[in-house]
Give the backbone structure.
Amino acid sequence: MVDTSRHEIYIPGGDYCQQYISNFDRKKGRQHNFQTVDEIFTDLSNGHHFSEDWKAYWAKAFIFDALIGNTDRHQDNWGIIVNPDNLEMRISPVFDNGTSMGHEISARKFMTFNDGEQIGRYVSKGWHHMKWKPNDKEQTRHLELVKKLADKYPETRQVMIERLNMVSNQSFKGILDSLIAFDVPIRLSAERANLMLKLLEFRRCRLLSKLEK
């Protein structure tokens, strides 16, 4: 078997958005929306073979972003990898996920997140970079985006539920405990890891509750 990976070409999502949206704001991506993404992938599917169903891909990406509270899945934080020899396409793994996990919460505020209501208020404010439609005034909240996708493509609901059931509070804690142990100049504190654990489990339970209805 010949390794063709060296021939693959990466095309950022923003390149496609510029083709489909006139005067697309490449810097801030204000018109970045799922309706256009849907159109892009529908058109591409007519002439190319994808190694994975693109609807399932976005279901996994949206549920991951909702779980970690990622607000920065902009048009250049996803893309398509093309093999020009056979025109097969695959969607890039999710990357650049740093704007998440309560990163902006200062240590002096950790204690306020002992209150379940405070956690709920914070999580409810989380939004995805994408709007649902081009003319929407604001980006879509994480939970709303997940629900809209499940309503539009019902087969994605089970994909998202299965992803959430692959993890648990125990698995989250195991990962965070291992990160605390890393001997690096700026270490993850046990206090911040505890906050991250609270946010992850709250989001996971909330997402499962809404999707399983």
